[in-house]
Write a structure and sequence with these properties.
With 424 residues, the protein is α/β, with parallel strands linked by helices. It is built from 14 helices and 12 strands. The strands form 2 sheets. It has a 9-stranded parallel beta sheet. Strands 1-3-2 form a 3-stranded antiparallel beta sheet, with no helix packed on it. Bound molecules: zinc ion (ZN). The site of zinc ion has 6 residues, from strand 4.
Length: 424
């Protein structure tokens, strides 16, 4: 039986009449093994000899579905229906100091900005200003691939604003459609025009590059396709950074079962799983790394810590090997905040290579980043349960490191960002 089997779920709901959950909106632990969530109640009904009798397992074996190891190699099932991971919301009884951080300690640059339509009018820009002021973001670098006439229009709105003209910068896009003969010259010409118009870099190059974009001849466009090299080389010549997002969390390539860390997300959005018709996670990482290595004079910023926030050793090796490489922290806070000691040491060691960025523009979510980076708080909620069923911890970065991550590194690698007016 599949965990996601809707009929099994309905049966279970009917069988156990799980009461409406009390209002504990941000207290999800999900510690209940997924198997107990849906399989257990049915297993309970079906299994004779359950309950206190228990079931023995051999060394290395796992308990059967619906059971948990209560003594070494002795499994037992709960004596009442288990709540699903969606409904289990235990009160957090831990009393520890809390330090909420509504505004960043130092003015921040959001290098992974996706404002919605706030750049299309003076009123929109004014609402963006209020949002950024409230959370302590001084400059937003928009990563919406804004090119050509759209770029010029957005830049006009920004330049006309006395309060925002130095607070928004725009990355342009590369059109990867129909790569083939003549493509590179056209792409480089557009890039040069966009930079001349006022874009400060390239990005965000989306995950479609590698996953789905096709060449003119119908084959998959590999990230390390040599036909793209003239564009990367043009970026080096123009002294602009390239912000690139490759692939997705590696669990999106795994089966949607009760060992998948992203089960809830994949069950909510099954289209996020990559089946056999896509290149593997490792294939995409290898192609990305080939491209990064082959263009050492180009400054790259890989989004989402390259999807290696769960393997900082791997990202550290990349930083060691590739001095042109930087990484941005958007949407992987759940991995940073679950390894406070390792992440602290990593950020200190690679303090010149990490940039703040948020991705999805939800102003209420930024304070979670500040709290992870700036405090040593224990065991607090993350903002999105389906990314992470665990709690976060502060990584307590020193001020000198915060300044580099929040603005110093972005200013250094992006000449088009205002260079003056930052704290020393
Ligand atoms: Zn993005």
């Amino acid at each position: 039986m599949s965990l996601a089997d809707p009929q099994a779920y309905r049966l279970w709901r009917r069988a156990c009449r799980f009461p409406d959950s009390p209002a504990q909106p941000r207290m999800r632990l999900f510690r209940v093994v997924l198997a107990t969530a849906v399989v257990a109640p049915l297993a309970l009904l079906a299994q004779p000899g359950r309950g206190n009798a228990g079931t023995q397992i051999k060394p290395g074996e796992q308990c059967p579905p619906g059971m948990t190891e209560v003594r070494p190699r002795n499994c037992q099932a709960p004596t009442m229906p288990a709540p699903s991971i969606v409904d289990y919301r235990p009160r957090n009884t831990l009393k520890v100091a809390e330090h909420k951080v509504p505004k960043a300690k130092f003015p921040a640059i959001d290098y992974h900005g996706h404002p919605t339509n706030q750049l299309s009018s003076a009123e929109g820009l004014e609402s963006l200003r209020a949002d950024l002021d409230a959370i302590g973001v001084k400059v937003m670098v928009t990563a919406n691939n804004t090119s050509g006439e759209n770029l010029k229009r957005a830049l006009e709105v920004i330049k006309a604003s006395p309060t925002m003209k130095d607070r928004v910068r725009i990355l342009t896009g590369i059109n990867f459609a129909n790569v083939g003969p003549g493509w590179a010259a056209r792409a480089v010409a557009q890039l040069e025009a966009d930079i001349a118009a006022g874009a400060v870099g390239v990005g965000e190059i989306g995950k479609g590059l590698g996953l789905s974009t096709k060449k003119a001849d119908g084959s998959r466009l590999r990230i390390d396709d040599p036909e793209l090299d003239p564009v990367w080389q043009a970026a080096a010549r123009l002294r602009i950074p390239v912000f690139i997002h490759t692939a997705d969390p590696q669990e999106f390539w795994q089966a949607i079962d009760n060992s998948n860390e992203r089960w809830l997300e994949l069950a909510l959005f099954p289209g996020r799983r990559y089946g056999d018709d896509f290149p593997s996670f490792e294939t995409l990482m290898q192609e990305r790394d080939n491209m990064l290595r082959r263009n050492p004079k180009t400054t790259f910023v890989i989004a989402h810590l390259g999807w290696h926030a769960n393997d900082l050793g791997r990202l550290g090796k990349m930083f060691d090997e590739m001095p042109n490489l930087h990484a941005e922290v958007g949407a992987v806070l759940y991995d940073i905040g679950r390894q406070p000691r390792a992440a602290h040491d990593f950020f200190v060691k690679y303090q010149d290579r990490i940039l703040f960025g948020k991705d999805s523009f939800q102003p209420v979510e930024y304070p979670y980043y500040w709290r992870v980076f700036e405090t040593r708080d224990d065991y607090f909620d993350y903002y999105r349960d389906y990314h992470a069923f665990w709690k976060l911890y502060g990584i307590d970065l020193p001020d000198a490191v915060l300044k580099k991550v929040y603005y110093g590194n972005a200013v250094r690698i992006t000449p088009g960002i205002p260079q003056a007016g930052w704290p020393r």
